[in-house]
Amino acid sequence: MRASTLAANVTARLLAAIFATTVALALSISPAQANHITASLVAEKPGARGGEIMLAVTMQPEQGWHGYWLNPGDAGLGLTLDWTLPKGAKAGDLQYPVPQTLLVQGLMNHVYEHAYAVLVPLTVPADAQAGTTLPISAKAQWLACTETICVPEQATLQGTVTVGEGPADARFSGWRAALPAPLDRAGTFTTTANGLSLAIPFPATARVEDPHFFIAGDGLVDYAAPQVFRRKGDLLIVDLPRAKVPSAERPGLISGVLSLGEGAGGIALTAKPGPVPDGGTPLTGTAAFSATTLALAILGALAGGLVLNVMPCVFPILSLKALALARGNSHHARREGLAYAAGVILACLALGAAMLALRAGGEQVGWAFQLQEPGVVAVLLLLALAITANFAGLYEMPGLSVERGAGSMGAFGTGLLAAFVATPCTGPFMAAAMGAALVLPTWAALAVFAALGLGLALPFLLLGFVPPLRRLLPKPGAWMEKFRQVMALPMGLTALALGWLAWRLGGATFAAAAVALGAGVVVALAFAGKRQRKGLPVARLLAPALLALGATAYLATPHLADARRTTEAGLLDAQPFSEAALASARASGKPVFAYFTADWCLSCKVNEGVAIEREETRDAFRKAGVVVLVGDWTRRDPEITRFLGEQGAAGVPLYLWYPARGEPQKLPQVPVSYTHLTLPTIR
User: Whole-structure pTM over 0.85, yes or no?
Assistant: First the structure.
């Protein structure tokens, strides 16, 4: 039996080798008929001198035909391009979408049975003249196959790139979405008696439906043999049987793509030699597991949105909602409740979609990424000052009138603003849900973001649809005007906090410019208030002025921001976080406390005040020799963003405890004393 198996294996490899050799020879011969896969070359948009744009080689197979991934598997041939480019231009590596498996006669192929595009970055010559058109061409060769026949094909692809600016081809967003998302943390692999074992960082809460690992290296594994997946904590472990005719070289690095299932996308990753844990839970019933994971993520986001209504980071918005609820004289409560909920959910969906799009484009961003941009903070400062002036009675903002009620449009706008300001912080339930959303398919991730918005909007929505709840509110009266004026205090404090954040984010010059624009907004609104009290229209005069000030805040003030930023050590004498610093601290044999924060995250600052930056915590940590690392995420930091994603978190706060011996632990995100949490462990 063993001899017959060996003979069959050798025969299969011999046939594959003969097939590959025949294909390589045949590719030099021009096809006698039209190609079965139609290829074309297209540029995404015009390119700046010395800049980089994306090209796409589109591949359109006929019905029943398929093309191949960069490693075609047991048989086949991927796309090759021989470029002819202008002097100074340079084409980068080919970027393939997530492939499919195709098993034919016991041979595993890595293929595309549908239209697809291979993306190629192109560097525009630095000396190219604006307005000129650069010709580009490539001699392309590929293999087109059905399950019974293969035909080598080729074509000379031609296109042009205009030097300058212009609109982008909308198709590229879909082609980029088909690429595997890069996994920022390397996995580990080890050689076993049966082949390779690979440990992939993958959140325990993340969905995985029908995984398959496409390895880029040849001669390392048996492509057609079943792959065995296990889950252990935040690792996905796959055992890959060795190749029938293994390569004599031992790999120093493994790269490939983890497909998460048909239509679920994939993850591009590399792995280096290292330990792979034993044990774990075999991955069975993955479809049910995926549905459960999605349901848990949605429930977590819903609960997290509810919690955000009472967390310190959303107190400025609570003042808006408190005024709207206390008004109690709406005749269209249901309609306003729906409008408010629509605004909140739309804002959460927009922020979530923007984050997913940026990550798909290779940006290292996480939840609340918008508050890492100086221009956004400047605009929020202007909004806070405008709302404060309204509460103080300087003018009347449409939608926040005590006498006439908010109206549907006012409620919708309040919902948009509520979500935009309320979502920077993560809290209990929400952290795991947002972390799972980063690796879910796009439609499922958007469902999680919508659930977050629904949770945030739910109290106001219930008030609109449950009359007994409205009857619990105080009756309308003169007190409401006093209440509005009192609400000017928390909004004024919010404006001060945003001014402080502007200084922390961009330095004194940037903060002064933002405050000066804010003063201009207040002056314009005071002028508008005088006209309103005289019964005169203000919209035609006020709207252009406010738009101009807002545009200046968003576009111009960031140029004044200071790129330098220093992190204060604080009471705990914390060191700035980096993965190298974490590895060094753990290698020293000391316990490590790592916390991740941002100046725009109010819950982070509350937690630091009541639980972290305390003398009791400092003394306990010093006595136990604890190394403290702080990851300051106020500004965009790709390394911190990457690390947060590896921990299954999409935002801050995040608190990690690494004992001197043992597995790391995630600590609670609620403001409790970490002295009491850690003292039993470190003593």
Answer: no
